[in-house]
UniProtKB/TrEMBL annotation:
Keyword Zinc among record annotations: no
Any single Pfam family the record assigns to this protein: FTR1
Topology of this chain in the membrane: Multi-pass membrane protein
Protein name (database record): FTR1 family protein
Family assignment from sequence similarity: Belongs to the oxidase-dependent Fe transporter (OFeT) (TC 9.A.10.1) family.
Localization in the cell: Membrane
GO cellular component assignments: high-affinity iron permease complex
Regions that span the bilayer: 6-26, 38-59, 71-93, 105-125, 145-166, 178-198, 246-263
Protein's UniProt keywords contain Nucleotide-binding: no
Gene Ontology molecular function, alphabetical: ferrous iron transmembrane transporter activity
Keyword field: Membrane, Transmembrane, Transmembrane helix
Length: 283
């Protein structure tokens, strides 16, 4: 539940920050008449994301056992790709995303209301579709999928509350530090997803070694204990993992974690020719 809460919080806050930048730009430039178009694009993006999640769940139930295992494996690998891309993209783009969005919205206003709807839709739907895919993959190995999805919804609600507080100046959050720490945790989550996906490929017969275990922690990770549930739910740490899935877990986790934590070079300052937006959250 904590892992899905973290995903909901992280993805939700990214989407909320994007929307707050668009809204603040319209308020600052006295173009409030376009606010309904922004909210319209946001609503369509949210509905499409929910529909995508429902389609994934419905489609997987119509498959055979082997087909379902293979489908879940593919979605797990795709979720790992999206999580990895998300954390590295935000690490690089966080400093310039506000100016980029304001420039895009300024151009969209000149093109007409539909373009404004499209900008808001595209800005949010990426986060929504990522969230739907990641949560579907994570719900597969959750003991209680409903509680897992409920925790993700809680994370999204917390993200909305934080975003509202940031917009109105009632909350101050070091977003750079927030995205760094959540990024580290999500790398561990993604490694667990990859491990789960590899195991599903083995279950489907696409990869060998299903009967070769790397180690046995059954005497330590007692099923039903609180620590076993946390390690299993957060990192997909199982008592008897196979050699192949353990190798995949380590091959992903170590290099990606090192690359993410490497110091970044400060980018050259870029002049922002668009009007500054008042009350935007500091990035």
């Amino acid at each position: 539940m904590f892992a899905t809460f973290l995903v909901g919080l992280r993805e939700g806050l990214e989407a909320v920050l994007v929307v707050s930048i668009l809204v603040a730009f319209l308020v600052k430039t006295d173009q409030r008449r376009y606010l309904p178009h922004v909210w319209g694009g946001v609503v369509v993006a949210v509905l499409l994301s929910i529909g995508a999640g429902a389609a994934l769940q419905y489609g997987s139930t119509k498959l055979s056992f082997t087909g379902q295992e293979r489908f879940e494996a593919i979605t797990s690998v795709l979720a790992v790709v999206f999580v990895t891309w998300m954390i590295f993209w935000m690490r690089v783009a966080a400093k310039r995303i506000a100016g980029h969005l304001r420039e895009q919205l300024s151009e969209a206003i000149g093109m007409g209301p539909f373009a404004v709807v499209l900008i808001a839709f595209l800005a949010v739907v990426r986060e929504g579709l990522e969230t739907a895919l990641i949560l579907y993959a994570m719900a597969d190995f959750a003991d209680d999928p409903a509680a897992s999805l409920g925790a993700a919804g809680g994370g999204i609600l917390v993200a909305v509350a934080i975003g509202f507080g940031l917009y109105h100046g009632a909350v101050r959050v070091n977003l750079t530090r927030f995205f760094t720490w959540t990024g580290v945790l999500l790398i561990f989550v993604a490694a667990g997803l990859l491990k789960y996906g590899v195991h599903d490929f083995q279950e489907a017969g696409d990869l060998p070694g299903l009967d070769r275990t790397a180690f046995d922690l059954s005497g330590v990770l007692t099923p039903g204990t609180w620590y076993a549930e946390i390690l299993s739910g957060m990192f997909n740490l199982t008592p008897t993992p196979t050699v192949v899935e353990t190798a995949a877990w380590a091959a992903y986790l170590v290099p990606v974690l090192i690359l993410f934590l490497l110091p970044r070079r400060a980018p050259a300052p870029q002049p922002d020719r668009t009007p500054a937006a008042a009350s935007e959250p500091s990035e």
